[in-house]
Amino acid sequence: MKLVRKNIEKDNAGQVTLVPEEPEDMWHTYNLVQVGDSLRASTIRKVQTESSTGSVGSNRVRTTLTLCVEAIDFDSQACQLRVKGTNIQENEYVKMGAYHTIELEPNRQFTLAKKQWDSVVLERIEQACDPAWSADVAAVVMQEGLAHICLVTPSMTLTRAKVEVNIPRKRKGNCSQHDRALERFYEQVVQAIQRHIHFDVVKCILVASPGFVREQFCDYMFQQAVKTDNKLLLENRSKFLQVKQSYPGIVKNGDSFA
């Protein structure tokens, strides 16, 4: 689902403009639209025309209507939502109060207005528009001092966070600065993982690096999880899979992850 515009006032009244992009988005739309809402979208209307000779005919024209929603019907096989209501904004083809049915389908933009948007509905929009909720694979692509947190959707790879920490070189007889900086780097990566990965959606988390960075990081992460009783990480430990990377590389947004 693509969010085009969102305008919610302090009293929670307002409107959002959305574009369903996938079949699943139509199910989200069905759960968003309610009786009493205002729905604005492009539609086809059959109108009568009269020629200069007085003959009457009919044409199908595309127009934009705003309906006060009275009935909603979801056709899952056709992946189409039919919304019936009365026109509340008169135009050259449709009078005020006239009944019409708008058919919503993937890639057709619509604007939905409510007198009161509740938190559950707004959360549904946020989830539907966030690719993270359709990503069942995540990846931590890292090297010493640099890591990218990525989400892998069916169509693309999205970089959701970049962690970069300057790691001083080890000095002979004194590694304290290096070790402290490395620990700070690992801790920031752990925080980014918890912030950007939805563990209830993701089935596998790839941790990729050259050398032994991935092993050292995973050891640190789960040792700290045990010390702090971090149930989120401990309960999802089996989802982490270490992958050897032959050279340092970062996946860019939109790339495939291979």
Automatic annotation (TrEMBL):
It comes from Nomascus leucogenys. PANTHER family: PELOTA, PROTEIN PELOTA HOMOLOG. GO terms for cellular component: cytoplasm. Component of the Pelota-HBS1L complex, also named Dom34-Hbs1 complex, composed of PELO and HBS1L. Interacts with PINK1. Interacts with ABCE1. Interacts with CNOT4. Residues 1-130 form the eRF1/Pelota-like N-terminal domain. It comes from the Eukaryota. Pfam families: eRF1_2, Pelota_N. This is Protein pelota homolog. One of its GO terms (biological process) is ribosome disassembly. Component of the Pelota-HBS1L complex, a complex that recognizes stalled ribosomes and triggers the No-Go Decay (NGD) pathway. In the Pelota-HBS1L complex, PELO recognizes ribosomes stalled at the 3' end of an mRNA and engages stalled ribosomes by destabilizing mRNA in the mRNA channel. Following mRNA extraction from stalled ribosomes by the SKI complex, the Pelota-HBS1L complex promotes recruitment of ABCE1, which drives the disassembly of stalled ribosomes, followed by degradation of damaged mRNAs as part of the NGD pathway. SUPFAM superfamilies: Dom34/Pelota N-terminal domain-like, Translational machinery components.
